[in-house]
Amino acid sequence: MFIIMLIVILWALYLFLIMPNVFKSRDMSVFKNFYFAHRGLHRGREIPENSLAAFSQAMDNNYGIELDVQLTKDRIPVVFHDYSLKRICDLDKMIYDLDYKQIRNLRLFNSDEKIPHLKEVLELVNGKVPLIIELKTETKDITLCEIVTPYLDEYKGVFCIESFNPLALRWFKRNRPQIIRGQLSSDFVKDGEKGDKRLYFLLKHLLLNFLSKPDFIAYNYLYRKAPSFVIIKILFNTPTVGWTIGSQEVLADIEKNFDIFIFENFSPNA
Questions:
Q1: pLDDT-derived band of residue 270, with 50, 70 and 90 as boundaries?
Q2: Residues with catalytic annotation?
Q3: For residue 72, is the peptide bond before it cis, meaning its omega torsion is within 30 degrees of 0?
Q4: Residue 5 is inside which H or E element, if any?
Q5: Which range of residues forms the domain containing residue 168?
Q6: Over the stretch 36-59, which tens digit does the pLDDT of each residue have?
Q7: E-strand spans in 16-172?
Q8: What pLDDT does residue 71 have?
Q9: How many domains is the chain partitioned into structurally?
């Protein structure tokens, strides 16, 4: 009897930890009507990722847009994925090492495209397609949330936010509960990420959902059979986002596993 009770208690605790937002249904039907171009519809050096040109291409093809936001040294929100500028701008510095004026002097893959300010992107998109905005903050410092919020408050288009950091999602839960928020996750060890393996275990198994109560789960499609992801999808009927799909064949193979799809390097149904 004791063992049965212990199993029941542990199971109840596990469900409490992984439980997303189940008490306030969020309408994500608009997002389900679009495929989302990862960092815009980019083509290497010709149309760089996370550029105004890539976002324009996505809109021209009626794709939603996934983009990344982080802060410069002087705390200006810019749209850029890597923390390091090396891959895209051939500069061995971090985004947070430079102020906004210095950032604006850089070019993406030696093209004419600059690193855009979040405001520029929102003005360009202007509600034409829905946005998935990833907040890039990997520490307990979630100042980014406070800084981007005024821009999001003014934006009239459809958007949601997502982050790997549950603390960022918890901030929005407390301060902007009306904004749809999603927990990003993956198998970080298999991905080769260097960091705290204990934290990676918690994030992979979505055991910090009790903090942020996400409205959707955005999961690396490669690990779509992860137990917590499957349980959340089936038991709680939580909307799911698959990232990042690289071919029409993969898209067809995983359609039953996700509700929303982020793609790259091909054009779905083209």
A1: low
A2: 38, 81
A3: no
A4: helix 2-18
A5: 35-263
A6: 999 999 999 999 999 999 999 999
A7: 35-38, 64-71, 77-79, 131-135, 159-163
A8: 98
A9: 1
